[in-house]
Amino acid sequence: xxxxxxxxxxxxxxxxxxxxxxxxxxxxxxxxxxxxxxxxxxxxxxxxxxxxxxxxxxxxxxxxxxxxxxxxxxxxxxxxxxxxxxxxxxxxxxxxxxxxxxxxxxxxxxxxxxxxxxxxxxxxxxxxxxxxxxxxxxxxxxxxxxxxxxxxxxxxxxxxxxxxxxxxxxxxxxxxxxxxxxxxxxxxxxxxxxxxxxxxxxxxxxxxxxxxxxxxxxxxxxxxxxxxxxxxxxxxxxxxxxxxxxxxxxxxxxxxxxxxxxxxxxxxxxxxxxxxxxxxxxxxxxxxxxxxxxxxxxxxxxxxxxxxxxxxxxxxxxxxxxxxxxxxxxxxxxxxxxxxxxxxxxxxxxxxxxxxxxxxxxxxxxxxxxxxxxxxxxxxxxxxxxxxxxxxxxxxxxxxxxxxxxxxxxxxxxxxxxxxxxxxxxxxxxxxxxxxxxxxxxxxxxxxxxxxxxxxxxxxxxxxxxxxxxxxxxxxxxxxxxxxxxxxxxxxxxxxxxxxxxxxxxxxxxxxxxxxxxxxxxxxxxxxxxxxxxxxxxxxxxxxxxxxxxxxxxxxxxxxxxxxxxx
Length: 567
Prior knowledge:
This protein is an all-alpha fold. Helix content is 72%, strand content 2%. The chain has 25 helices and four strands. The strands form two sheets. The protein has a two-stranded antiparallel ribbon. Strands 3-4 form a two-stranded antiparallel sheet. α4 packs antiparallel against α10 and α18 packs parallel to α20. The longest helix has 33 residues. It is globular. The protein starts with a strand and ends with a helix. The N terminus is likely disordered.
């Protein structure tokens, strides 16, 4: 999933980003000093760019506090890799389970579009519920135990997917496979939510951007791994989707074992008045020679100055234009992120390539979709702080729209020329014609994923943490994230049926129109937040601006000066 998913309930706790997941460009990047759900902190720290985080690592004072956090973050991010593996698993699996040449009633059954769509959509649908359940668990049990607890539904889900291989009846196979798919999605949502919290709370303020980027990076690595193993399964005798699920189970076991050697976050321990243990863990994470007193004072001051708000009081805040306007903008971003149909493009990438006549569709899918997304994800980290959010979204939308249009053209050529209208084309000529056009589908798909990854993948999550006022961020972020996963489930559920109803070319052209519409709405209504503090962004909406065609916030000079002085 784009990664989709990578983030739940941004800043609803002391430093909680969202799935799939409030970073400056990735989950955990640029997080703020926020509060528990329903609580308001007095002050939020200005965001620090990822490039500044990298420079900070090079300073002698930071070297000794870098590696403990790096190792624990990498271990935690194995949970993100499990999420990515869930997203990529359906692509190659659908190819194998749609193969009617096997001659048994199970293989070929998922060739029926309704079941293929259901299989793909149950992952993000399950993920939509994973975060809400992980939320109270991480609060009651602690961040580390909650992360490990997420491995239980992951193991159960992948065992069910694995067991489906041995089902003797079609009904048993379908029930176990689909239920297992939903459970793996639930676990993915749980894990990515907890990973984001864990990293944000163990990293020092200046390095949250860097370590937060690990979350999305490992999600794309997990996706690449799953697509790659699926490609092997589809091109190797004796290695099937059953063996792919076993490898993913091994990854989960490795994750659980390594998490035993990590520690609880100091921030959560301070909220539970376990100060001695919190001081010990913080000293370990920062290094024996680090001065941790300033950080301790900052955490304790944030805890002391929190103001409790009831759910009713938070809901009443939505009457204010300074709340409902940015909330609607966040929902708009979530809508276009998912209705770009990127999840469908990823989940069904091998099937799309096969329909376009690409030889070794699953292998090409793994290399072009999974591999390119890793590179584009790294590039996005730099671009978001150089070019700004609004410019990148416009460029991304234009690239995705053009790519979708080209994919439609490719399918038009395949249908009208390769299939032919005179009936003179032979099967052999048809295959040659499709293979000669396969490069166009590959190029367009790669361009589509690159365009998505540089902006529409990360920026909606970033801007959610920037646009939503702190006093409603927990509840509003929860609703927006649930909506995002709901949109993802709808897209993956209807994609196959929609394509069959209107043909591939019309489907992709309609996706191109959706992204063109996003350009118009982004230009007219979305304010640029780059270089502005969270207080300045909130002040902008309080001024009652409806249209935001400019590429920087227009604020009174006294407001800017006041906020700069406070920083």
